[in-house]
Design brief:
Length: about 100
């Protein structure tokens, strides 16, 4: 497990930090994006509806069945998280020479 905490579906599997590799803290995640030109009112509406859907018990149960840990952040929190991830991994990606083509 590369996250900071053990995964609920695999409680007996230790994290890398727990096995002596605390610097390895990486998670997979997904989110929804809209074009930069999307009007703020539409972004707010989408953000609220998506967050509400992720709070739905049936949606949470299904996501957990699939091994996901649903968060359902709203736009500002998700935008901050993405910026943090870009900062965190950007140098490594640049050094590797990888590109999105």
């Amino acid at each position: 497990m590369t996250g900071a905490t053990r995964h609920a579906s695999l409680p007996d599997v230790p994290t890398f930090a727990q096995t002596g590799y605390p610097a390895l803290d990486a998670k997979s995640w997904f989110g929804l994006f809209a074009p930069a030109s999307t009007p703020p009112a539409i972004v707010a509406l989408l953000s609220n509806e998506i967050a509400a859907s992720v709070r739905d018990p049936a949606v949470q149960a299904r996501l957990k069945e699939l091994g996901a840990e649903p968060i359902g952040d709203k736009h500002d929190a998700f935008q901050a998280y993405v910026a943090q991830e870009v900062t965190r991994w950007g140098g490594l990606v640049e050094k590797s020479g990888a590109s999105a083509e």
